[in-house]
Recover the amino acids of this structure.
């Protein structure tokens, strides 16, 4: 399969949602937080953690980001 799609599938639903809104749909960090019904600060933290989790999953497959 596609490495990024496979890695995304292994993320928690919350992380997946944050990354899809931010990078798939092109919403800003602030818009993503609002759409997920959280404060901007909490949204930023969630997005950072989601990116780190995705990076870890990709590295498990031998890909570097």
């Amino acid at each position: 399969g596609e490495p990024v799609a496979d890695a995304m599938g292994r993320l928690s639903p919350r992380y997946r949602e944050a990354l899809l809104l931010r990078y798939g749909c092109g919403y800003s960090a602030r818009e993503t937080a609002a759409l997920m019904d959280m404060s901007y600060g909490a949204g930023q933290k969630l997005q950072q953690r989601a990116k780190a989790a995705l990076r870890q999953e990709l590295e498990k497959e031998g890909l570097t980001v």
About this structure: The chain has one domain: 3-60. The radius of gyration is 12 Å. The mean pLDDT is 95. The helical segments are 3-9, 13-24, 29-35, 40-60.
